[in-house]
Predict the structure.
Amino acid sequence: MASKVTIDASATSKPKPSTAAPIEPLKNDAARLYTHIHPVIVLSMYAYKFNAIVADPVPALLAILAPLAVLQVAYVAVCLPPTGETPKVRKIKPGEKKRNAPGVLESGVNGTIVPAFLSLLLAALAATPLLTATLVLFGAPVTTHHLHTLLSGAHIALLSTLPLVYVHGVRGETWRQIVALLMPIDEVYGGMIGTMLGAWLGAVPIPLDWDREWQKWPVTIVTGAYIGYAVGKLLGGTLLKGKKIMFA
C-alpha cells in the first residue's frame, strides 16, 4: 500500500521568520563617534558635488565613487562587527610548540580590514550589476544612458549592500530574509531599506513637467538614495531599532 505524503505549501514557499538580533555597533569610542558622523560626511560629500552631478552626471558620479567606497569601508571596519563564527581554540598536541598570539595589527587586518574589502568587492562585482538591471526593469533608459544607470547602481550598491555583506556574510537563508524584509531593523538594515525607498521615491520628479535641469536621469534617483540612506540609518539605529516590518 503506497504511503501518502502531505506537503505544507505555506511552509515551503515562505522564508522562515528571522530570529536574528539587531546588529549592535562596536562598544568603543571611535565606533560610537564615527557611526553618527558617517552619514553627515557622506551627505556632505554628495552635496558638495551636487551641482557637478546635475551639469554632467557621469564624470561627477565617477569622481565620488572611490571616496564613497573609502567611507563605507571605514564605516564597517570601525563601527560594525564582521560576520563569522568565533574562532575555535586549537589544542596543542604533545611536543608541539605554542604559537605566538597574533598581534594587534594582524588581528585588526584579518578581523576587520580584509572582511571590509571583501564586502566592497562583492558589492562592486555582484550587487552593482544586479541593481543596475533592477533600475532598467523599473524604467531606466534601455538604449541610452548606460553609464548613468551603471553608476547609479554602483552608488546604491555601496550604500546599501556593502554594510549588509560585512555583518551578515553571504548565507543564502539570511539573504532571503533580508530581501523578504523579515530581519529586525537596525542601522545597517535601515540604511539598506532607506536607500532603496529613497531611490524609488527619487523617480517621482522625473516625469513632472517642471523643466528643471536636476530632473534628468539619474540625478533624483541617486539623490534620493543618499538621503534615504542617511535617514534609514538614523531611524534604524534609534526609533525603529529591533522592530520588524509587519505584513497583513
Remarks:
- Residues 104-137 form the longest helix (34 residues).
- The chain has nine helices and no strands.
- Residues 1-12, 85-90, 100-110 have pLDDT under 50 and may be disordered.
